[in-house]
Structures are given as structure tokens and as C-alpha cells.
Amino acid sequence: MRKHFGLAIALALTTALAACGGSETAPTQQTAKTDVEKPILKLGFIKLTDMAPLAIAKEKGFFAEEGLTVTLEPQANWKVLLDGVIGGQLDGAHMLAGQPIAASIGLGVKGDLVAPISLDLNGNAITLSNKVYAMIEPTLPKGADGKPTHPISAASLKPVAAKLKAEGKPLKMGMVFPVSPHNYELRYWLAAGGLNPGFYLPGDVAGTTGADVQLSVTPPPQMPATLEAGTIDGYSVGEPWNQAAVTKKIGVPVITDHDIANFNPEKVFGLKKDFVEKNPKTVKALVRAIIKAQMWLDADNGKNRAEAVTILSQPNYVGADAKVIAASMTGQFTFAPGDTRPAPDFNIFFGHYAGYPFYSDAIWYLTQMRRWGQIPEGKDDSWYLSTAKNVYRPDLYMSAAKSLVDEGKAPADAFPADDSGIRKEQGKFIDGVTYDATKPNAYLASFAIGLKGAQKVTPAGVK
């Protein structure tokens, strides 16, 4: 993966700011592909920096090289985006990794969706309000420089949550959607620190039964304003909305998802299953274009990130100040004014097989849905794998990848040689638990907080 490249990006940013244009860039080598079934497409996205592969595929001409004319259309929130794909108003979209999985099992809304490519790894953080951070800051371990030692444990919030609960006003945290990585990462962090984030009852979208911390949904761009208004005490969100809190001086990011569940898949590209079946050449062209964009984003230790930041800052994409986007997307992450730390793996688009849609990644999300009661009944291990295979499609990804390799446009070793779709056992979680995708029930049983076995959630709690 790329090395610390923040300095190089900073030096290049001024040039990129001056050079950026808003129209689609003509590809340097046009490939006349006229055999795709549907050459004109409308794709949806949410204004977050991890939609970058789609923006880059358009602006750098990678869609055009594949014979595709693509319109990228921002959506108001994740529900609107999901409904747009299921309803056919959108041909595909930048989706939360958990969305197509949840739709396949009828969690929230039912829809037969396919994820032929993952868009990125990592990219989220958890931010606390200035008020709450001031309450925990004196208790945090400090380094020789006087700055807090990272990662910060959620255990530091236990006395704050207890104090607020005694005063009749529980600690409140925001996340972006019930089946979002942000929800599961926030819950994972809280539970690892001994705080119960609450369970979902059947048909319940709040998930606050037995909660020590009250979680609620807020659309990403509204997070800073909601925090500033005091409606929530913190939030879990993607960029640039944690950096926006730093810039506005209304909050302090305390941990990134890199330190909660390292190399966690964050977004995927989602399509309806029948669209995939009817338009196989179009899907292959889409995946090829996105892979090219991902390669461009991670090329040569991030040499293109400054240009990517400028493209994303345009109002038709993320629409945030370029400096705010650069604060997390250029190999570093700012936790507070004067506290910027190296974060070379905060946004990964191609390295570490970021684009490959591993079954094991889908299974991890299913375990978290079960852990917190969104899946109300226990399932056997085979169910997790078969459900993952119904949605995540590494076969489609590898078909596109191999065609690029055969044409000399991508190196063979950039893609997995193992076609099982299962990563090896994964560690580096904040609680020290190891994840083995072949044993999801044993994994669930390892947690002190969370459903396991045949346990169910009732209004009175877990039984």
C-alpha cells in the first residue's frame, strides 16, 4: 500500500486546484466499444469522498473508454438512493456495503441486488462534540508530546454516559443508516469499551432496546449542523464530515475505522440482479471503468490524490472545500487543530484487493446484523455463506479484472489468486477478537455484548 504521501500531495494541491475543470475529460486512448447493451446510464451517489471511483471514472474518461455515457446524480439520503436503484430510476449506485446484503434478506426494504465490485476500504471516523470530548480528555492517556494516545477506547465514555443517564438525558450518537458500516463500526467500538449500543426488535428501526448510548440516523452532510445544534453528542460518518467538525471547531474525531475494524469494506457498487442478467457486457464495462479509476486513485503512492481532491470539491460531487477533503484523503488525518497524524490507509481504493467483493466481507456484515438483532433468529453457518454468495459477485469482478490483465492494462498480482472469496482469519480489531468467516456463529459467541446462538430480543431485553 502507499507510503506516507501527505507532503507530496500538499505540494501538488495548489497546482491541481488551478488545473481542474468540471467537464468530462476525453480519454487519452479512446476504445470504441459499441457492443454494450445499455450505453447511456444514470448512477446515484451520496456526497462523500468515497464516491471518488465514480467521479474519477467519469472525469478521467474511463467510462467513455468502455463505451459508456454516464450521468452521476447525487441523492438526498441512503434510503432515496436505495429506492432509486430498486425502482429502476437509477441503473446503479455507490452504496453502503450493508445495503445490498440487507435488501437481499428483506431487512428494511426487499430487493434483489448484486455487488460486483467494492469501492473502497476504511474511510470513516467517530467524532465527539467539544462538550463531551472536554469531559473525557483529562482521563485519556497522553504521549510524550502531550497529545492523546490513539486509538481511544470507548471505555472513556462510560462515566459520561452514566452521568447523562442519571440526569435523564442519555448520551446520543448519530450514524448514517441502520445497515451502514458507520452503524456497525460505532456499535463495535462502543461494545468493545463496555457500552451497550442497544438491540433491534423485529420491525424496529431505532435499535435502542437495552442501550447505554442512544443511536439515531442523520444524513452525512447534516452531521455537523446536527452536532452543533446539540441534537447529538457525536457521530460516526465518512469524510469530509469529520474534518468539517474540526474546521468548524465544533467537534473532535477520536478514532478512525482503520483502528476499529481494519480494512473494513465501506462502499460497494450496487445493481439490480435483473439488470446484471440482462446487461452482462454493460456490467463488465462498468466494473472495468471503476477498476481503472481505483488504480488511478492509488497509483504511485497517491500522486493523483491532489487532483482527485479538486475534482471531488466541485459542487456536482462532494461540494466541500478542497482543503477539508484533503485533510483526510491525502495520507493524513486531522484529529484537532495542531494534531494531524499520518494515515496512509485511511482511504484505500485499490490496494489490499480493495475492489474484490469478498464473501467474507458480506458475512461480517451479516454477523453484525445478527449481533444487534436486525436478524432476529439464529442462523447456521451455511446460511451466512449462501446469503453472501447471492449478493457479492467476485466472479463478475474477476472477469473484468482478467480482461484488463490480458490487455496489459493491469498487473495480474493486483488481484487475488485465490478464488474462494474468503479472506484469511482477520485480526486488528480494536477488541482483539479474530474474525473467521468460515465460523460466523463461533465469532458471534466470542463477544461479551451481542446476540449469540438462539438468543432473541424482547421489549424487556435479551432472552
Automatic annotation (TrEMBL):
One GO cellular component term: endomembrane system
Organism, as annotated: Sphingorhabdus pulchriflava
CDD domains referenced in this protein's UniProt entry, alphabetically: PBP2_NrtA_CpmA_like
Any matching Pfam family: NMT1_2
InterPro entries listed in its UniProt record: NrtA/CpmA_ABC-bd_dom
Location in or out of the cell: Endomembrane system
Protein name: Nitrate ABC transporter substrate-binding protein
Keywords attached to this entry: Cell inner membrane, Cell membrane, Membrane, Signal, Transport
UniProt signal peptide: 1-18
